[in-house]
Amino acid sequence: MNNKIIWIKADEGNWDERKAVITTGMESGVDAIMVDAADVEKVKELGNVKVAAFSSNPVEGAEIVVVGKGGEGDGTKPLPPDYAGSLDITTALRLKDKGLKVAGYVIIRNKDYENFAAEMGSICDYLVTIGTDWQVIPLENLIAGLQKENVMLLSGVQNSEQAKLAFETMEHGTDGVMLDTKDLSTIKKTAEIAETAGVKNLTIQTAVVTRVEAIGMGDRVCVDTCNLMVRGEGMLVGSQANGMFLVHSESEESPYVASRPFRVNAGAVHAYIKVGEKTRYLSELKAGDEVTIVDGDGKQRTGVVGRVKIERRPLILVEADLNGKIIKNILQNAETIKLVTKDKEPIAVTDVKVGDEILVHSEDIGRHFGMKIEETIIEK
């Protein structure tokens, strides 16, 4: 999943004010802190975070140099005709030639500045735009005009409502936002919105169980995440890439063990797990990898693997009919491992029987190295 990114603007006010904004941003998991060049070292002392520094020259410690503040981008200097001789464009090109990541910074004061922003966007790695009287229309024009350019577009916003609008503009939305606020709660709220913004629900279908059979011993994979899951959430796992079962998390209490809401006892080592737009083998997951957490409505969010446990356990095969197509999954044969019924209720694999209706996800497309491809692949 391509989650939207957030930069925090922290170049105004005294250091204590800026520090509070920066630390809250870091605690909320923002992607970068945007500051004046003089503050880069101070920010780095606070934690390991990407820094975007306003400057016209390389800045030691900064991953990104932001061009436009104090120049044509923010209106301090007038725009030259047709932008020929633009200092901001010349600076951006010079920094790019040095192999640096560059962000253009433009306040959209009128149509000329919108056109100038598009020009900067064709050069820079990132483009940060701030609207004035008109916000949505210039943003729509830039989203459309820059879609073929290799640039990340960030809209300058001051609250979470504006961030949500930017994320949803023209369906695709901006790649992220540059949040300019001293309100610490706004930073947290915007980070929450960004986590699921632009992520479409998956299509969840109902399949009818046609076979349940204990098949002996094998190696199964437990995926322990750095995230807590709730009732109804789990991961999509299957023996075939085009048919995956919703395997419920161990968020439910049971008489056998305490709940482990961070865990999905996912399936045998050979199985596929859906991760964003791709699939991976369960056996290749490791700490630090991303996984996709899904619920019965198809709502998805990103989780992070904290630990993977592969252990030899008794296994059970579950087959199901999905509109005439037979799909399969192999799971540990134990009461704590659960699928999800059509009523979105967890059901232990030891209780599943022929005729039960369970939730699955299907894609009529092949995969090669986990990526969707248009070719015929038969998996039995």
From TrEMBL:
Annotated PROSITE patterns: RIBOSOMAL_L24
Pfam family name, one: DHQS
Protein name: 3-dehydroquinate synthase
HAMAP family registered for this protein in UniProt: Arch_DHQ_synthase
Keyword flag Amino-acid biosynthesis: yes
Organism: Methanolobus vulcani
GO MF, one example: dehydroquinate synthase activity
One CC-aspect GO term: ribosome
Record's keyword terms, sorted: Amino-acid biosynthesis, Aromatic amino acid biosynthesis, NAD, Oxidoreductase
InterPro entries (alphabetical): DHQS (IPR002812), DHQS/DOIS_N (IPR030960), DHQS_C (IPR056179), Ribosomal_uL24_CS (IPR005825)
Reactions the enzyme catalyzes: 2-amino-2,3,7-trideoxy-D-lyxo-hept-6-ulosonate + NAD(+) + H2O = 3-dehydroquinate + NH4(+) + NADH + H(+)
Single GO biological process annotation from the record: translation
Domain named 3-dehydroquinate synthase N-terminal: residues: 4-193
Described function: Catalyzes the oxidative deamination and cyclization of 2-amino-3,7-dideoxy-D-threo-hept-6-ulosonic acid (ADH) to yield 3-dehydroquinate (DHQ), which is fed into the canonical shikimic pathway of aromatic amino acid biosynthesis.
Enzyme category, top tier: oxidoreductase
Protein family according to the UniProt entry: Belongs to the archaeal-type DHQ synthase family.
